[in-house]
Design brief:
Layout lengths: L1 H8 L13 H4 L9 E5 L4 H12 L3 E6 L2 H14 L5 E5 L5 H14 L5 E2 L1
Parallel strand pairs: 1-2, 1-4, 2-3
Helix pairs in contact: 3-4
Bound molecules: 2-acetamido-2-deoxy-beta-D-glucopyranose (2 copies).
One 2-acetamido-2-deoxy-beta-D-glucopyranose (NAG) binds next to loops.
Amino acid sequence: MVGIFSLVTGMPGPSGFGSSSTAQQVTEGIDASNLTAIITGGASGIGLETARVLALRNAHVIIAVRNMESAKEAKQMILQENESARVDIMKLDLCSVTSVRSFADQFLALDLPLNILM
Ligand SMILES: *[C@@H]1O[C@H](CO)[C@@H](O)[C@H](O)[C@H]1NC(C)=O
Ligand SMILES: *[C@@H]1O[C@H](CO)[C@@H](O)[C@H](O)[C@H]1NC(C)=O
């Protein structure tokens, strides 16, 4: 009940955050500089917002999407906030096993840890 109430009203729950909390608020003060995050669909909507905020917290963000044009725009947008943000874009079509394999090979070649996958 409390969960639904706070979801509808946006009022904070026991965590101190509610459905109206932003990613920026929730990650305030977090240093993600040792983390690598792959964000599928990170070129638009909630994926882009997640990529933006993780990059803002200094994570190494890899935006994995089908459309490389929108990925480039997303990267530009993030770099406008911090030109040293670590943002890479990589092609990934989750409907294609070939694309997933090729993405995985490229990612492995970067020799980065994988801490967050969204
Ligand atoms: C990141 O890694 C370095 C080297 O291992 C370490 O010294 C530092 O404390 C780490 N930073 C965070 C925020 O975990
Ligand atoms: C910009 O990003 C770099 C790399 O993540 C980070 O070291 C630096 O502190 C960031 N600058 C600001 C103003 O957030």
